[in-house]
Amino acid sequence: MWLQMSLLCLSCLTLSSQSQAQDRASLRRSNDHAGRCHYTFTVASPEESSCSGSSMKPEKDGVLSRLTLLEALVSRLIAGVDGSVGTGVQANGEEGLQEAYSHVTGERNQLQQDKERLNRQVQELQRRLAELTQEAETLRQKPCQQTHTSGGTQRENRPPASDTAYEFGNGAYQEMKAEVTEVPASHLIPERNHNFTGCGELQSVGDPVLHRKADSITGKYGVWMQDPEPQGPNYTNKTVWRIDTVGKDVRQLFAYEDMDQFSRGFPMKVLVLPEPVESTGATIYRGSLYYQRRRSRTLIRFDLASESLASRLDLPHAGFHGQHPYSWGGYTDIDLAVDEQGLWAIYSTSKAKGAIVISQLDPERLEVKKSWETNIRKNTVANAFMVCGRLYTVASYTAPNTTINYVFDTATGVGRAVAVPFKNKYRYNSMVDYNHAQRKLYAWDNFHMVNYDITLGRASHGSS
Ligand code: CA
Fold this sequence. Notes:
- This protein is α+β, with helices and mostly antiparallel strands.
- The protein contains 6 helices and 23 strands.
- It has a domain at 180-459: Lipocalin (Beta Barrel).
- Strands 3, 4, 21, 22 and 23 form a 5-stranded antiparallel beta sheet that branches. It has a 4-stranded antiparallel beta sheet with strand order 5-6-7-8. It has a 4-stranded antiparallel beta sheet with strand order 9-10-11-12, with no helix packed on it.
- It has helices at 2-17, 57-82, 85-141, 170-182, 185-188, 259-264, and strands at residues 26-31, 37-42, 201-205, 209-213, 222-226, 240-244, 252-256, 269-272, 283-285, 288-292, 298-303, 308-314, 335-339, 342-347, 355-362, 367-377, 383-387, 390-394, 401-409, 414-423, 429-435, 440-445, 448-457.
- Helix 1 (2-17) packs antiparallel against helix 2.
- The longest helix is centred in the N-terminal third of the chain and has 57 residues, at 85-141.
- The chain binds calcium ion.
- Calcium ion binds at residues 335, 337, 383-385, 431-433.
């Protein structure tokens, strides 16, 4: 392009230098031999008006000076093309900008990643803080409530301030507990019959067998179980169910294909419950999960096949959310249980003054069929379960060697002390329930999900 321009300028200079002679120029037009029109343009030399033989030097000098001028101009223009510093600077500048931009972009991406990572850390810390706060609250409520079975004394829990009924009648409970701890175990254990497979009285509990240890704070306590009478094709008696109950909005029900998958910790499904779960009293029976709704005396039947709420019941007069818990607290006011005879609720009421009340429930419609009032106070025992229509209570949730210390037979309405050895291997047992199909007790002991073999035998003491 620069060369073209220089040639154009050369023409301009030439024309300019010839402008003086333009008044002497002429244009002639004529036809050639082929009949085409020809134009002839004639212009005189600037130095002469005729072609006489006078000296050519002035004209030569003029041409030479013009050529020198043009050469200088051309070399300047060429130098501009070849050594264009400005273009180089521009190119270098663009390259530099590109590099800086990509550097800044990289830094920005890195910062965004850092920000996301930190946000995740903050959320995780907030979640853990909430859980620890919840646990601290629970522990504060029950600071020193271990049940001391070995020494024969049990601490009374302070009754709820609102319930003045508890100000009276403590003497009767003290008397009953003294009886519980003073009866020699050897007088209570009936003749053993290890081949007995029918319904009978609890003879012995084996050592705990570990199946799974929870790996986070949410697994400190919870519920795990198998359905003794499963229904439908989706779940079997091999399916294992688990709820981690630490936290304020517990709604996740984990399903594991079998015990092996449960032990490895990989659920096949997570069901989301319509209402949050309170504490560790839930149970699974005939294709439904039964549980206490948080901060209420409402029991819920959740159908596992349709994953929907099937029925609900406000358990009449039942204490809830810390009114009548087991000795470890944890809002264990209403404990649901299943045995050979069906579905049961274990709880207490103001009228029963904190003594354990048992209600047999219709599992389908979730209605109370019949209730019994026992003579053992709920907050003096660690947990309870039903076997063959009999209620059994565990004396301590922390003592590594404790006992099943009481039985109440719903067939006769009579309760009495027993002393069947029971082990809290991990020293914080928050749930104990019976599975009659497996003939085992299932428990959640301080992050550890364990079960125990049991033996039943023909009952003694005339309680059938
Ligand atoms: Ca229980």
